[in-house]
Structures are given as structure tokens and as C-alpha cells.
């Protein structure tokens, strides 16, 4: 039954399953859990479908649609890691290489925690011992002061210089966007181009992921309004957009996330990635699938992906993401050759308490007859 879209004998079943998913999505919104929701499925044959309910903008009464984009937060790390896997496949770097090979000549590099020991693998798996630059109070103050400021990567890194390391490189786990900012800088050093250009040329264009855009501007096409608590991380509050333009800077996130999704393209991406369409998985799989326990965020963490075991679903590979006003999760289910993704346009903590449970319930409906 995995290939229901391929055979005419199964259309009624597929239609019934779609109705069950849509009914659950409608029920979630009817319970007042989120302003809006998008749940997407990439099926075994590559077809992708989105189910929506609620509002892209509550105040204007604009309904959420599959064409709306939502900020994706840390899920962008899956793309950074895939670019690096391509570069490894092309013998342009190795996991064991020191970051200093590309960044060591920067005047600030020696001031990084564990600067001499940092490797590509340390950065990919959050084993550098560096803190998160974005939650430093001084950084939040600067973001709020000038939402039009275009941040250079070195200006972001500056917030962790001279910090004491959380642990020796490679001997612990501490989730930190700082790691991926450094990886973005290394990618640009190797490729001689801006990261977003590399991403477009290597992944987004070849894989036809047209629903994914960089968040390097305050205006993102078809971005749903994001709702948040009065006091949110980074000092943001209440809502993100005014007249379709972000009240706050979006550009700083960069390779720590830095993307906006049509949700179905995130589901498509995860299926393409884990089925070997981003790089040669037969050749690179042993390099890629090296995950370690990550108790801070749950499950285990590998080269830019999270590995989870979901009750009554099974093993899952993907990534979740947070940006004030938006929450995202997506996973690939190898047992079923299916990927699922869910986004909501709120990070109000009282409304996110059932987020993972809702995601799991919808995922169980998807696989119930596979």
C-alpha cells in the first residue's frame, strides 16, 4: 500500500486517508491550538501534498494556504550539512579537518573557545564547546536597535570570542548556531561565493525546491504572520510582520537556519536528502550517519540532522526549527519511504505544548495503511 498514488486501484483509499488527515488538521485548529497550520507529506512516489487550516494572518482574516511560507529556524542546518557532504565527496575537505585550515588567518580566530582543536565534525555535531551567539543579551540589544543592519558573519562570531569553552572539543554536546555560522564561513572560503548562491546552485535549483527562499531580507514573499509571546527569545514580541515586512532583522540567522519554507518543499527535501539525491548516499552514508546522544534536545544528532524514535511510528531522521513566531518539524521515515513536515505560525509557549503530540498523531494517520 506504500505506492497508493501509482495505481488506479487505490484512489479511494488515498482519498479517504487525505480526508482523515485534513479532518485532524481542522480539529487541531478548532481547538484553538495555533493561528494556522500546514502539514505536508512526501509520498513514496515523490508526490507531495499539503493540508492546511487556520489563518496566515488572523487580523486580516487571511486563510493559511499551501503557498504560504513560514520561517523554518534551525531546519536550515540540514542544507548546510548537505553542501558540506558534497564538498567532502569532491575531496575539498574532510570531517577531520581543523577549522583553522580555512579561518586560522582571521585575527579573531585564536580567541574562539577551543580554537586549535575545532574540526568540521565538531561543528556539524555541536561538539565545539561554544555557546549560542544569538542568545547573548548584547546581541539581542543590537538586533532590536537596528532591524536593517546587515550582519557580517564575523560580527556574529564576535559575541563568543574569549568565552571559556563549555567543554573540550569533541567531548560533549551543546546545541549552538555559532557552529553553523563558522561552517558557512568555511563553505564560502572553499567555494569563493556567498552561501546562498552556493545553496541555490548546488541544491535548491537542481532539486526544484522553488518553495524555499533565503531570509536575507525583511520582506519574504507570501510569508505568514508570526505570533509570539510578549517576551520572546531575542527580545521579539507579539507579532513579526507590519504591512508584510518584518519588524525585526531576519538576515542574521544565516547558516544557523536562514530559510523560509513552503512546507511541502521541506517534506520533499527530507525525502530527497535521505534517499541520496543531495549527495551519493551509497558513497557518503558512512560519513554522514554518525550521530551521538543529544540529551539537550532529545534523541541523537548527526551531521546536521536529528535522529528520533517516534512511538508507534519508528525511526525518523530530520530536524526541528524555532524562530520567534514560527515552529517547524520534519522527518523522513525510512521504513515507509515517506517524509512528513509540520509548521505553525506561533511560538507562544502555551500553544506549543501539544505541538509534538499533534505532529505524531498526524504522522500515525499517514502511515496507518502503508
List keywords for this structure.
14 strands; 370 residues; 32% helix; Beta-lactamase; disordered N terminus; three-stranded antiparallel sheet; nine-stranded antiparallel sheet
What overall form do the CA principal axes indicate? globular
What is the CATH class? Answer: Alpha Beta
- Class computed from helices, strands and strand pairing: alpha+beta
CATH superfamily: DD-peptidase/beta-lactamase superfamily
Any overview of this molecule?
The chain has a single domain (4-367), classed as Beta-lactamase. Helices cover 32% and strands 18% of the residues. The protein is built from 12 helices and 14 strands. The chain has helices at residues 11-30, 77-89, 100-103, 120-124, 137-145, 153-157, 177-191, 195-204, 263-274, 281-288, 349-352, 355-367; strands at 36-42, 48-57, 62-63, 70-71, 212-214, 241-242, 245-246, 259-261, 292-293, 300-301, 306-310, 314-323, 326-333, 338-344. Strands 3-2-1-14-13-12-11-10-9 form a 9-stranded antiparallel β-sheet, sandwiched between helices. Strands 4-8-5 form a 3-stranded antiparallel β-sheet. Helix 1 (11-30) packs antiparallel against helix 12 and helix 2 (77-89) runs parallel beside helix 7.
